[in-house]
Amino acid sequence: xxxxxxxxxxxxxxxxxxxxxxxxxxxxxxxxxxxxxxxxxxxxxxxxxxxxxxxxxxxxxxxxxxxxxxxxxxxxxxxxxxxxxxxxxxxxxxxxxxxxxxxxxxxxxxxxxxxxxxxxxxxxxxxxxxxxxxxxxxxxxxxxxxxxxxxxxxxxxxxxxx
Length: 162
Description:
Layout: H1 7-20, E1 38-39, E2 42-43, H2 51-54, E3 62-69, E4 72-76, H3 79-87, H4 89-92, H5 101-105, E5 113-120, E6 123-127, H6 130-138, H7 140-150
Antiparallel strand pairs: 1-2, 3-4, 5-6
């Protein structure tokens, strides 16, 4: 007997596939978030954002070598990395405030995991977990485009200047 999908099965599969498509301009995030994903005031969970570019890998930063930007403390593995970041933070800071790039492409936020990362076209992206990283990787250009559209639409708290 040969399996032939019913119309219901086909509709369910179509719904699942469309749910996986990037959703630019469709925001489900209603909770206001900080402009930078920070846990207790610490950006990128204490990882050095410059290291992804300079060393090609996530590297833990040091509390002794830090810089305050966008309401969060950023830690670095060297004074040179700190100084490079301070001179041009937008070059090194993760996109979408360090929130999960896949979640932002879907119109919401989730905490970013600095060990789930990619540098694409000179920009750092982090994701929440290995599954989010895998799904994001399946359509990087589409997910980046959706994230770029969605990120400004997600409500954010004003940055504390202190």
